[in-house]
Amino acid sequence: MADLKIQYQKLLDSGQLKADRDQKMAIDALNDICTALEAVPPRGSIIWRALGRKPEPVRGLYMWGGVGRGKSMLMDLFFDNVDIIRKRRAHFHEFMIDIHSRLRVEREKEAGDPIAPVVKLLAEETRLLCFDEMVVNNMADAAIMSRLFAGLIEQGVTIITTSNRAPDDLYKNGLNRELFLPFITLLKDKLDILPLNGVNDYRRQRLGDAALWHCPNGDAATKALSETFFKLTDFPPQDSEHVPSMELHVSKSRTLFIPRALKGVAVFSFKKLCAAANGAADYLAIARHFHTVILVGIPVLGPENRNEAARFVTLIDALYEYRVKLLASADAQPENLYPVGDGRFEFDRTVSRLAEMQSNDYLKLGHGMSENLGDEMRQISDK
């Protein structure tokens, strides 16, 4: 049985974290949940049958606070150490994409309410659901969330989630928000609400004074970006050959290979990301899943590599709208990245966004879809 409090204290003793009252409260709460989940007898066991009923669901937790408050770190610590089999962790937006896909299948059966069978199947698959960055940006999600999550909790599923927003601020000013209000009531009733509002911005502290845009491409830029990657992810540099990769699911029929991906940080080469046949849906999937992207090998752009330039513009739009932190190496500074030729005028917006993405104000923003997401990208995102 894991003791999260002991492991958290080790991080403090090693200097990886600073003492933080709110984080301490979160660790205490998560440790209690961990203990309660591990104490539940296995499904179908003699003890389960002796009870004559399903055990009471373990109460969940909603942790919210600004960027860099350590929410994902706390979730990592909890999820990696809770010793149960049926558990699932997912980015919230990807989870809702999965839900809508399941609902479509049920609607095609024309067998009545599609939510009930989806809830039943999910409850059979897992009894612990952990979400990163709960945020609601569309009416399709807002309209079903109350019934969906009420059903999951009733079926005994424990829900742990992080968010940059307090429950009352979810889907704020959204279309038909009255349909969403029961979900906020459900959160407050069924989950403990824990704010992490301290002053320590751990993600910004780990970046320190590190440069975000390295010019030109070369060994020095690669070395600097590698050092920043290890600092952001706590991965030991001596094990650099063993940095994990992953496959990111864009749709049922499409996945993207991420050569280096750890703790919300992904590393790409410009050639693989913008010279290959990728599009807005791919870039939006990346922007949703990672809070930081490291992009290496950006060349000088122009009419001769128009397609690559167009993909780069779309990539930056997606990262910007989801407030992703961008670190890069390039053969020129942003203002000189597309120096002359047809298409230079259209590239000005990208230059402006690249400049803003290096500002302190931008770096302080939480990861997630901005309220002014363009209609075209919103439609792609919601598909």
Can you walk me through this structure?
There is one protein chain. With 383 residues, the chain is of the alpha/beta class. It has two domains: 4-196, P-loop containing nucleotide triphosphate hydrolases (Rossmann fold, 3-Layer(aba) Sandwich); 202-382, Rossmann fold (3-Layer(aba) Sandwich). The protein is 46% helix and 16% strand. It has 16 helices and twelve strands. The chain has helices at residues 4-13, 21-39, 46-51, 71-81, 92-109, 115-125, 139-154, 181-190, 202-207, 219-233, 270-275, 280-289, 306-321, 348-356, 360-363, 375-382, and strands at residues 60-65, 87-91, 128-132, 158-163, 191-196, 213-214, 246-251, 254-258, 260-262, 265-269, 292-298, 325-330. Residues 371-383 have low confidence and may be disordered.
**Helix percentage range:** 40-55%
CATH topology of the largest domain: Rossmann fold
How many domains, as an integer? 2
Structural class: alpha/beta
CATH structural class of the largest domain: Alpha Beta
Q: What is the tally of beta strands?
A: 12
| Biggest sheet layout | 5 strands, parallel
Measure the end-to-end span: 42 Å
Shape designation: globular
Give the neighbour order of strands across the main sheet. 2-3-4-1-5
What is the number of helical segments per DSSP (H or I, 4+ residues)? 16
Work out the strand percent. Answer: 15-25%
Alpha carbon gyration radius = 22 Å
CATH architecture of the largest domain: 3-Layer(aba) Sandwich
- According to CATH, the homologous superfamily of the largest domain is P-loop containing nucleotide triphosphate hydrolases
